[in-house]
Automatic annotation (TrEMBL):
One of its GO terms (cellular component) is cytosol. It comes from the Bacteria. One of its GO terms (biological process) is response to amino acid. This is Transcriptional regulator, AsnC family. PROSITE patterns: HTH_ASNC_2 (PS50956). It holds the Pfam family HTH_AsnC-type. Keywords: DNA-binding, Transcription, Transcription regulation. Residues 36-97 form the HTH asnC-type domain.
């Protein structure tokens, strides 16, 4: 059974603006959660389905004017709700047919260094600091078992690894589930 597409991402400029490629973060966006209404939710849902959708089509789907949609999307970008626009790639089509999760145990004084190492290994597609016995959970995509061994060897100086191979992925989504929209201030339910 072929490996299903994973969140291997190639960052691609949307038709709207090259500025949206990089994560948009501001100090305010880090500390507070912006108030999102039903229209914001509809915009986010549409953009999660197709980040290349034109503003005109987006406006048609959410029943707003194109300028209103453009302003709302820019606000979602500037407040850090929308971080960037991505293209999902099927790694098996690139010859990367093996996907694995590597659990890594790291001594406290080497935590920051491990994160730098993980960023430098191209086969690492995700790296998460986790609770429990291990320090990090790293997802890798590789060609074959020999390639996996090479990647694990590159991560080995960090005390211990424990690897789980992915057989298949019955639930896989790049979509973020949205909480219910918040009512506008000053309105009653």
């Amino acid at each position: 059974m072929p490996i299903m597409p994973t969140n291997v991402m190639l960052v691609r400029a949307p038709r709207r603006s090259a500025k949206a490629i990089a994560p948009v973060r501001t100090p305010a966006a880090e500390s507070e959660s912006p108030s999102l209404d039903a229209i914001d939710h509809a915009l986010i849902e549409e953009l999660q389905d197709n980040a290349r959708i034109s503003f005109a089509e987006l406006a048609r789907r959410v029943h707003l004017s194109k300028p209103a949609v453009m302003e709302r999307v820019r606000r979602l970008e500037s407040t850090g709700v929308i971080l960037r626009y991505r293209t999902e790639v099927d790694p098996s089509k690139l010859g990367l047919t093996v996907r694995a999760f590597v659990k890594i145990t790291v001594a406290g004084d080497r935590l920051a260094n491990f994160a730098r190492v993980a960023r430098s290994v191209p086969e690492v597609v995700e790296c998460h600091r986790v609770t429990g016995n291990e320090s990090f959970l790293v997802q890798v995509v590789v060609r074959d078992m020999n390639h996996l061994e090479t990647v694990i060897d590159a991560l080995m100086p960090y005390l211990a690894t424990n690897t789980s191979m992915v057989l298949n992925s019955p639930v896989q989504s790049a979509r973020i589930p949205l909480p219910a929209p918040q009512p506008k201030r000053g309105t009653r339910r």
